[in-house]
């Protein structure tokens, strides 16, 4: 039997767990359908940019905070959104960091930034359609759920 191979676009992104007094910093972004999405600060890496550099840049854009002392927590990797127009091979890193500065987002998609108690984070996450939106895939949130429970693994296959 011949195995077929295919080439998928590669999506590299990095997000940061910023924690203060038992609360996790989340950004509020407006989705294409008008709904509000709560997510970790961070986002896509630019070509040639390391995941740590992408995390620091994206946190500054989305929150106004400067981060230092980034520490790797986990990597989520594999084929994502199989069968949709946005199917890709994803590499999503999660870091912790120290943050300085004042909250002042410059990213126009960010409509708010808030510190959320650990036990309320999952209640803000919307799972489900549209299938082309990886932020609503429960697998994307598994590393965060484990991190908040003190059970983070270093690798999460999709």
Automatic annotation (TrEMBL):
Pfam families per UniProt: NUDIX
**Organism superkingdom:** Bacteria
Note whether Hydrolase occurs among the keywords. Answer: yes
User: Would I find Hydrolase among this entry's keywords?
Assistant: yes
Instruction: Give start and end of each Nudix hydrolase domain.
Output: 9-138
Q: Provide this UniProt record's keywords sorted from A to Z.
A: Hydrolase
What InterPro entries does the record point to? Nudix_hydrolase, NUDIX_hydrolase-like_dom_sf, NUDIX_hydrolase_dom
Cofactor entry: Mg(2+)
CDD domains per the UniProt record, alphabetical = NUDIX_Hydrolase
Q: By its UniProt entry, which PANTHER family does this protein fall under?
A: ADP-RIBOSE PYROPHOSPHATASE YJHB-RELATED, GDP-MANNOSE MANNOSYL HYDROLASE
Could you identify this protein by its name? 8-oxo-dGTP pyrophosphatase MutT (NUDIX family)
Native source species: Deinococcus enclensis
């Amino acid at each position: 039997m011949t195995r077929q191979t295919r080439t998928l676009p590669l999506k590299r992104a990095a997000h940061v767990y910023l924690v203060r007094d038992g609360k996790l910093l989340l950004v509020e972004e407006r989705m294409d359908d008008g709904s509000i999405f709560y997510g970790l600060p961070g986002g896509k890496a630019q070509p040639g940019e390391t995941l740590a550099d992408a995390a620091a840049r994206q946190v500054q854009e989305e929150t106004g905070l400067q981060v230092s002392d980034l520490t790797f927590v986990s990597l989520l990797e594999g084929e994502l959104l199989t069968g949709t127009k946005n199917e890709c091979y994803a590499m999503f890193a999660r870091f912790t960091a120290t943050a300085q500065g004042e909250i002042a987002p410059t990213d126009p998609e960010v409509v708010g930034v808030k510190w959320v108690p650990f036990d309320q984070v999952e209640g803000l996450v919307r799972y489900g359609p549209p299938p082309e939106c990886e932020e609503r895939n429960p697998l994307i949130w598994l590393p965060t759920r484990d991190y908040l429970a003190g059970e983070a693994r270093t690798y999460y296959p999709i």
